[in-house]
Input
Amino acid sequence: MTQLATGDGSSSPSLHPVGSLPPDRGRLRKQPKRQYGRGSRGIAGIIGLLVVWEFVPRAGIVDPRFLPPASEVIATLIADFGLATFWLAVGDTMLAWAVGLLTAAALAVVLGFSIGSSMFLRKLTHFTVEFLRPIPSVALIPLAVLLFGVRVESTLLLVVYASFWQVFIQVLYGVADVDNVAMQTAKSYGLGTMARIRHVVFPTTLPYLMTGARLAASVALILAITAELVIGAPGLGREIALAQSGGSISGMYSLVLATGLIGVAINLAMRFIERKALSWHSSIRSEVIA
Output
């Protein structure tokens, strides 16, 4: 045990032996190993799924004409990577996803902070929000086709509508969760409206906002693919429909697999952004040192 000097000149044993790490630092060093374990289990799960997928059609449990083996689908997907049409479709889908998500998030943040900060506006819009929010976005497909035909604008309409509510409701919850004592204290210190929003409202709302953005990112991809699949707008959804109608079952499944990979990449990216944006928040810090 090492000795620590006290205020009266005496010494006392230190909390940790020489060469040891404090508990928090020890846990911090163990975290990468735990994350590696999680990644290994995830990879093992994917491999297990692929093995089952390969076995089921080859064993005759499912007709291979309707569900080709995983190896055949993966080979088709690898071949698609070398096709310009594939990447054009991916680009169309990701463009609709990104523009729709950003538009929805911007509208939701502005309206969420404006309405959430006013009790009068919250009461005034409560019934309208509860009426519009449950309407499924796919129910707007006929309207989108009438307004924009089979262009990308139809996809954007559905993506914006579906993603908007994910972020908007979370922002409302976040603004409502602001501590009234903190707001009154900020007022007593002479902080103006914008300063209170910056230093009190926004830090409280940010975790809700990031959760809404992460959920909206997945919803936006789902609606983009759905719109392309049903309406025929440019993108991976339309390519899936064309492959199915043309009898290219392996090609259809390879495109479905590609959409799944894109969804995983989006989710990982949004979680990374969330951790970076909320690195100061207790929920993220507890994950690091737990």
Notes: The radius of gyration is 26 Å.
